[in-house]
Amino acid sequence: MKAVHESDTTWIFHHDDASFKKAITVSPCNPLVSPTHNILETTLPTPIGEHYTEKRASEMKLLHSAAAAAAGSEYENAKQRGRRKQEKHGRTLKLQKTREVLVSTADEASSLGQMLVTMVMAELRECALVVAYDAGYRGHPVLQHLLLLHNPRQVEYVNTTEDLTRIIWTSSMCRGYFFLLDDPEPLLTFVRDNQDTWDYGGRHTLVVPSLQFLQAFTDTLIGKKTEHIVGVVKSGTKGEWVLYMNQLYWGPGVRRINTWYHHRFTRQLDLFPDKLSDFHGTVLKVSTFHFPPCSFLHGAENGTVVLFYGTDVETVKAVARALNIALEFVGTPNGETWGEQYENGSWYGLMGQLERHEVDIGLANLFVSKHWLQVIDLTAPYRTERTGFLIRVEPPIPQWQSLSFPFHKWTWLAVLVGLIVTGPLLFLFARASGQCGGEIRNLQDLSFAWYYAFGLHFCEAHKSLPRSASTQVFVQFLWLYTFVLTTSYTASLKSFLIMKKKPYMIQTIKELYESGLEVGGPTDLYKNELSVSANPYLKGLAGAFKYHEALEDIYIPMLQGTGVYLGNGISMNYIMKRFSRRGVSYVRIMKEYYRWYSVALGLQRHSPLKRKFDQVISWIREADLYKKFTLESLLLHASLQKAGGSGDDSVTAQEDEAALSGEDETEADRIVPLSLENMQGIFLITLFGWICGSLSFILERTIISR
Predict the structure, then answer these.
(1) Among 334, 482, 496, which residue's Cα sits nearest to residue 399?
(2) What angle do CA 576, 582, 588 make, to 5 degrees?
(3) Residue 390 DSSP symbol
(4) What residue ranges in 185-310 does DSSP mark as E strands?
(5) Residues in Cβ contact with 80 at an 8 Å cutoff, skipping those fewer than 6 apart
(6) What is the dihedral of CA 262, 265, 266, 267, to 10 degrees?
(7) Greater confidence, 145 or 680?
C-alpha cells in the first residue's frame, strides 16, 4: 500500500492487493473518519501473506502519525468555523430584532409627535408654548416635531423640582404647556409647594407614563383649580395614545375624551372646552353671617337658619341662576364675622373658611381691599358705596330758649349795653337843655329818662315829647335805632318759634377728631385703612378706633353720644331707619364721608370661578340690579318680622323704601301751627314778671311800714 499526498487536507491510500483497494479522504468534514481512531487500524486491513521490512514499517508509522495530526487539526478548525457561523447567525437575528424595535419605537415617537402637533394646530395655534421634558425624552423625536412649530416657545429640561422654577408662568397671550415626563415626581412636588407660581389659566398637556399619576395630579390643590388639564397616556396597543381631561366642577377625577390611533383622532377634537359657562347643577358652598341689609339670616324657633336673603345673597343667587349652579348656604362658625388673622398667620371667621377651602364663596359687604386680597380673591365689584360715620342726633334745644335765638350772644350784649346807656344819655341831654329853660321836667329825672328809653326798646309810645332841639335829635335817632332793632328781632323770632333750632352738630372729620369720640367698627379693616391715611385727622382716628364683633356693641355708645359708627352707605341708611320713629331718626350721617369702597364676592385664592363670575356681575352692575335686590330684601324682612310679631330689627315696609333712597321727611320739613311748646318762652317770661312784681310789692310794703 502506498499513500499519496494530494493536498493539505486530503490523503488517499491505495492497497496493493488486487482484492482490496480503497480511497479514504481524511478531513474534519468527513463523518466516516474520526481523528481519535487509528486510520491504519481502521481502514487498512493487514495484508495476508506479505512481509514488511523494518524500513517499510517505520514509514508506515510516520505516515500514520502525520495523518492523525492532520485530521485533528482540520476538525478543530471546522468546529471553530461552525461556532463562528452560529455566532454570526445569532448576531444577525439580534440585529434584526433590534432594527424592528427601533423601527417600532420610531413609529411610536413619530405618532406621538404628530399627535401633539395636531393638538397645537387645532387648539393652540395662537398660543405661546412651554415644553418641559425629562431624561426619558432627551433626544426624543417628539421634541423635533414641537420645535418645528412657529409658536413662541420656551423649552426646559427638567431633572429636579428647581428646574420647573425657570419656567415663565405668565404671558400676555394664550399659553400652552407640554410636560413630557417619564418621572412625574418633580412636577408633583412642584405643584404642592408653588401654588402662587402656577398658571391656572393656561392649557396644560401632560404626557405621563400612567393614568394613576394623572389622577394624583388632578387631586392636588392646583389640579382642582386649573381649568384645562389634558393627560396623554400610552395604551397597550401599538401606535395608540389615550387622552383624558380633568372634570373641574363637572365631576371628580378625569374622564376619557379621545384616542389617537393610526395617526388620527377617533373623535372630533375638543380638548379645552369651556367648563364654566354651564356648571350642570354643581353644588357650591356659600358662607355668610347676619349683616343687614347685605345678608339676613332668618332662623326658626330652635335657632336653625331656614332662610338666607339680603342684597349680597340675592346677587350670588342671580349669578348662580345664570351659570346653572346650585347653592348651599352655611353660616360662619360660632357667629363670627369677617374674621382677622391670628399670630400664627391663619385666619378665623369668613376669611378662615375661604382660606381653608371649606366654602367656595363668601359674602357680607366685602370691600375690595388689600386687607382681604392677602388671603382671598375677590370678584369684580357689583356696587360702590360711600363709607362714612353714623352719629347720634343731638337732643334739640329746649323751646323756651327760642326767645334768645334771633340774636347772637354778642348782639345781645350790645343790646344790653344800649339799654343801660341810652337812659342816662337821655337824662343828660334833657338836664342840659333844662338849664336853658327849654325842656320838660319829666325827662330831667333819671328814673323817668331810663324808663322812657326802656319803653322805646319795646316799641312803647310815650305822651311826653322833648322840646329842645338837641334832645329831639337824640330821641329821633333813638327811635330809629329801637325800630330797626325790634323789627329785626320780631321777624327772626317768628322763624325760631315755628322751626326748631338744631344744636351744634359734628359734620367734618376734623371736628370728629377734636371731639375725642370713640370710633366703632365691625372689622379691623377700617383701622388698618385709617392708620395709613394721608389725612392727619383720619390717621388720628385710628387711635380712637375700637373693633366690635357684635353690631349691638357698636350701637350702645353711638346712641349714648359717646361714640360713632363707621360703615358704608347702605348699612348706615338701614341703621338710621332701625332707630327711627314716626319719621324721626335718632342717628344721622356726618356730611363729610371717609372714602368710597367697592363691594364684591369673596372666592378662594386662584379660584377658577372668578373669570365667569366677573362676566355675570358686570351684567348685574350694568342693569343696576342691586337696588332692586336691596328693596326686595327689605320688604321680605318687614313681612317676616310682621308675621313673627316683632323683632329687634323691626322696620316698616314704608320705611324700607325710604331706607333705600336715604330720604326722610321730618316735622321740620312741614308747616305746623304754633303750639304751646313753641310759645313756652313768652309764658315763662310773663311768669318771671309776675314774680318780680310781687317781690317789688313786698319790698315796697316793707319799706313803707317802717
Answers:
(1) 496
(2) 25
(3) E
(4) 203-207, 228-234, 241-246, 254-260, 283-288, 296-299, 305-309
(5) none
(6) -170
(7) 145
Determine the 3-state secondary structure of 238 from DSSP: coil
Cβ 322 vs Cβ 367: under 8 Å: no
Q: Which of 35, 45, 23, 44 is nearest to 67 (CA)?
A: 35
Bigger pLDDT: 339 vs 428? 339
Count other C-beta atoms under 10 Å from residue 184's C-beta: 21
Half-sphere exposure of 454 (CA within 13 A, CB side): 8
E strand or H helix at 361 = strand 361-367
Cα–Cα nearest to 194, from 217, 222, 224: 222
pLDDT (tens digit per residue) in 20-37 = 333 444 444 444 344 444
CA distance 345 to 211: 37
The closest of 60, 59, 25, 55 to 41, measured between CA atoms, is: 60
The number of beta carbons lying within 10 Å of the beta carbon of residue 379 is: 28
What is the per-residue pLDDT across 487-538, written as a single tens digit (0 to 9) for each?
877 877 777 766 666 677 899 999 999 999 999 998 888 998 899 999 999 9
- Residue count of the chain, please give it: 706
Single-letter amino acid, residue 381: P
**Cβ-count burial 78-98 (b if 16+ within 10 Å, e if not):** eeeeeeeeeeeeeeeeeeeee
Question: Rounded distance, CA 43 to CA 26, Å?
Answer: 11
428's CB contacts (< 8 A; 6+ apart) are none
Give the DSSP H or E segment for 563: strand 563-568
Report the C-alpha dihedral over residues 632, 637, 638, 640, rounded to 10 degrees.
120
Among the residues of 1-158, which ranges form H helices? Answer: 39-43, 54-123, 141-147
